[in-house]
Amino acid sequence: MAMDNSPGGSWRGRGLAWAVVAILLLWLGGFLQFTSQLPRQMTPRPMVSDAIVVLTGGRGRLPVGLQLLTANKGRRLLISGVKAGVTAAELQPDPVAEKLFSCCVDLGYQAHDTPGNANEAAIWMQRHGYESLHLVTASYHMPRSLLLFQQTMPDVTLRPHPVFPKHVKLARWWLFPGTLKLLAVEYSKYLISLFRVRLMGPAGK
Question: How far is CA 115 from CA 2, 23, 39, 49, 62, in A?
Answer without folding.
Answer: 48, 26, 21, 22, 19
